[in-house]
Amino acid sequence: MPASRLAASSGSSMRSWAIKIVLLGLVDALAVFAMFVLFMQESWIVFGVTLAVTIVINWIYLRPGGLPAKYLAPGLLFLAVFQIFVVVYSGYIAFTNYGDGRNGTKADAIENIQLTSLSRVADSPTYRLQVLEQNGSYSFLVTDPDGDVLVGNPDQPLTEVTNAEIDGTGKAISLDGYTTLSFADLLNNQRAITSLSVPFSDDPADGALRTPDGSNAYVYESALEYDEASDTFTDATGLVYRDGGEGAYVNDDGRELIPGWTINVGFDNFVTAFSNDDIRGPLISVTIWTFAFAILSVATTFILGLFLAIVFNKPGMKGKKVYRLIMILPYAFPAFLSGLVWLGLFNQDFGFINQVIFGGAAIPWLTDPWLAKASVLIVNLWLGFPYMFLICTGALQSIPEELTEAATVDGARPWAVFRLIKFPLLLVSVAPLLISSFAFNFNNFNIIYMLTGGGPRDINAGVDAGATDILITLVYKVAFGEGTGRDYGLASAFAILIFIIVATVSIISFRQTKALEELN
Amino acid sequence: MKVTRSLLATGAMAASAALLLGACAGEAETADPTTAPETPAASSTLTVWVDADRAGVLEDIAAQFEADRGVAVELVTKDFGAIRDDFITQAPTGNGPDVIVGAHDWLGKLVQNGVVAPLELGDTAGDFQDVAITAMSYEGQTYGLPYSVENIAMVRNTDLVAEAPATFDELIAAGQAAGTEYAFLVGLDPAASDPYHLYPLQASFGAPVFEITADGTYDPTTLALGNEGGEQFATKLAEWGSQGILNTNISGDIAREEFIAGKSPFFLTGPWNIPAIQEGGINYAIDPIPTAGGETASPFVGVQGFFVSSRSENTIAATEFLVNYIGSEEVQTALYEVGGRAPALLSAFEAAQADADVAAFGAVGAEGVPMPNVPAMDVVWSDWGSSQVAIINGQGDPVELWRAMVASIQEKVTAG
């Protein structure tokens, strides 16, 4: 090897080394920053994971050799973050009761119940307030509505004082021996000051003053008392609310305090999914329609796409590129937007379709159960055929011309050539895409939700399930209720069940398509 | 070649590490919101979620607040419709805002999730319209500072019908006599009707949604929909539907366009459509909603306001900002001028009466009741609307459909 080549090669390798070190340094800097934040927040598990990942990344890229790991590491990391973490987290949520009214920790719930149970005694007077500080503890200097001045703190009930300094409005603003807190001082100690409760006397029944804003104090009463030892709330009438084991405090009558908190509920969500009447009732018809919708969507779009692909594949046709471009346009629009546009077109009295195409006929496209099903399929055909057109065009162009020629020479007619040669070869490459298209349409939430919202609803059923609801929209309605509030736990459980259905169908289908590959 | 490869690989690695970091940080705070680091910066910045319309006005008052009180206000502009759910999701992580703008009918959901803190308005409570304070209350606690009230009324094309009719039947007669394409317009939805817009007519039959307790709030456990008045209303709905007076295919947008085109003398709508009607050159008057069932046709009053997060570490600053700044007459008036919604503060509301439209809507709203803010309302809207569609389109006996709806709502309210 000539000396000059060697020098150039080592120069380039030096440069690549430098770039590698800089980029690795950036990653490490980010990781150290992350670990610093995590350390401050005492999130030890995430801290440990970040540390381990950083060390592994450095080891992979700094050691000589081990080329496969260097290629795989970024991909694996993405896989872990975007796929595995999400799936595992959904799985975890499926075993909790996370949802509306159950969206925090128990400690937060207790704090919140205490906060909302405190209220100003109705029609009680306003005490003008100056917060004072003495030896690191806070006191209230209040001017009552009659102009009398009182001072006190949580340990010493309010007593009248006469030597306070009064401002022009008659409000006491300072007292000998105490430091007057400015607004900025208040801001720096907001939690401490808003949690102060200064009693009128040693008897708690006389009430206590609290301040929400640092400049006014009011008599507050608490509707609920928390007892930490027994972990119960007691209200004014003596009713006791206990941790009922379902993520909320309940009394003997079954009344819950809000909010509750998130707990693990085991397989409860899966049991609900199968035993809930709202689901079970319409489940069979919805499941049949879901399969029908997915299969018909794939079939109609594939047939139209294939037909157009064959037509536009004719050699020597003029303006092919322009036509193809126009064909692909529906594919370029966001599906939910198209759904809304079609919703307007289908309007019974004002829509373009009835007004212009059908000359003013009042065809109930979206409100008749069967027409609504047809409408959904028509819109999905419009949205979906460009995809099929694209993949069929690609697949057709990859089939060697010689095969057609050879068949023609053997005396085959065009239809026979297509049916016996082109189509089977086409299926080899297209079949897996048809299966994924089925999986996509099985969960095609956008089109259903935007066009019909699952409706028209069967008004006598009592369950909010409509004629065009597929499983995923039914799940959405049940779990995120326009109904009973959002229930992420139940939604995750359903997502897992739907995943199992789709995965099963896909695996069986892929097995079948293996037979096709033997053609090659 | 080798350079490019390792460059790509390391770049991808950096990106994934950053993403992982983001995910981890979110996780960490979910796990333990109470131990977020106490930094001086955090205690002197108030984070407020507002929608784009309100942001402009609040910028001025935020600057004023910072100059007076030394607390920076960070305004985060969000889509109004997304604020409620985002807030419910984010507040428990400790990363949510201190203050949000919102509608009063969110309150039930916010309280149910424990994300909103009570707000003591002190002696200023009496300065607001009663309906606004009632709307901002839930189970006896006041939670928000109201800034606007709005309600619907009957908008009349004065060129087509000169006098305001006294009853809904007279309105229909006058509308038919005017010889226009529609006797009366109201925006509905083919799947969900619009119980909000039809409520005044229902109320005139003496059928509110829930029973109203002595203190003026709703009792969410006792439905009043199913009383005799409700069934009479259902019968009427079917009648109006068969006569074509109500048409579920006329959406809000279509109704507005047709009214502006002069195709109907009456349009049941709110202040939000007035600018378009003015632009369309229609001579209009805003009338009380005529009664259909004999009693007052009281509309729902919607109240917008500001709420403080229960996880806020800045409650004193937030309370000060809301009560003494947002609650001031200047800000209430400025918010009214930008949004066109009548102010909730009485003094600002009276000043706004100079505008005839505001005064007219306000007079109708004085007869109104706050839209229920209980969490169960989500259930009610959905069943209520789809049953109205079925009744209007004659898909069964109106009274039976109404009874089935009441039974279904009652079941869900009891369960939920």
Can you tag this structure with a few keywords?
heterodimer; A: 520 residues; alpha+beta; Periplasmic binding protein-like II; MetI-like fold; 3 domains; 4-stranded antiparallel sheet; 17 helices; elongated; B: 416 residues; D-Maltodextrin-Binding Protein, domain 2; 2 domains; 8-stranded mixed sheet; 3-stranded antiparallel sheet; 16% strand; disordered N terminus; ABC-type maltose transporter activity (chain A); Maltose/maltodextrin transport system permease protein (chain A)
Structure notes:
The complex is a heterodimer of chains A (520) and B (416). By secondary structure, chain A is of the alpha+beta class. Chain A contains 17 helices and 15 strands. In chain A, helix 14 (414-442) runs antiparallel to helix 17 (488-517). The longest helix of chain A is centred in the N-terminal third of the chain and has 38 residues, at 3-40. Chain A is elongated. Chain B folds into 2 domains: 39-150 and 302-370, D-Maltodextrin-Binding Protein, domain 2; 153-300 and 373-415, D-Maltodextrin-Binding Protein, domain 2 (3-Layer(aba) Sandwich). In chain B, the strands form 4 sheets. In chain B, strands 1, 2, 3, 4, 7, 13, 14 and 15 form an 8-stranded mixed beta sheet that branches. A 3-stranded antiparallel beta sheet of chain B has the order 11-8-12. A two-stranded antiparallel sheet of chain B has the order 5-6. At the A-B interface, helix 1, helix 2, helix 3, helix 4 and strand 1 of A face helix 1, helix 4, helix 5, helix 12 and helix 16 of B.
